[in-house]
Amino acid sequence: MIEGLDTLKQWVEESNNIVFFGGAGVSTESGIPDFRSVDGLYHQKYDYPPETILSHTFFMRKTSEFYKFYKDKLLLEGAKPNAAHLKLAELEEMGKLKAVITQNIDGLHQLAGSKEVLELHGSVQRNNCMKCGKFYDFQEVKERVEKASELNPKDKDYMVPKCDCGATIKPDVVLYEEGLDDNVITKSIRYISNADMLIIGGTSLVVYPAAGLIHYYHGRKLVLVNLSPTAQDSSADLIVRGKIGEVFSQL
Ligand code: CNA
Question: In terms of CB atoms within 10 Å, which of 28, 48, 96, 249 comes out highest?
Answer without folding.
Answer: 28
